[in-house]
């Protein structure tokens, strides 16, 4: 439990860093533009593209953060030896339901493909948010591999207070 909680905390910090710092800088013909994850989301925020912007924000930022928060809420009290928090079963159920929809991994693969295509047209400088997002994907995969769902469900059931 402790390892899963620590990896989830690490992923949360990395997500905040990935949102906060510049993702990449493009330089072409004397023009320089820095972009962040928020800039990528807001790029589609006008007119008929607004729903696409909301979907992008949800899939690469909001849902992964919700999943991490649900994992932390469900498992952190037990990692320090306490009984599960009220609603821990529901929180872990939510984390499991969000797993296929939290698509930070897909985003970073798409960015990598786009970087290969754009590299010949402009000078690209990868920012700290790119590395934070890449580390976030690795930490998320590692966390999912450490997580034995059956054991977590059994532990949540056995440690919950019976009234």
Walk me through the structure.
- It is a single chain.
- The protein has 163 residues and is mainly α.
- It has one domain (2-159).
- The protein is 68% helix and 9% strand.
- The chain has seven helices and three strands, in the order αββααααβαα.
- Strands 2-1-3 form a three-stranded antiparallel sheet.
- β1 (24-28) and β2 (31-35) form a beta hairpin.
- α3 (50-79) packs across α5.
- The protein is elongated, with a radius of gyration of 19 Å.
* Rg computed from alpha carbons, rounded to a whole number of angstroms: 19 Å
Briefly note the structural class of the backbone: mainly alpha
Helix content: 55-70%
The count of domains is 1
Query: Average pLDDT, to the nearest integer?
Result: 92
Question: Low-confidence parts, pLDDT < 50 over ≥5 residues?
Answer: none
Give the strand order of the largest sheet, numbering strands 1, 2, ... along the chain: 2-1-3
Descriptive tags:
single chain; 163 residues; 3-stranded antiparallel β-sheet; 7 helices; 68% helix; 9% strand; elongated
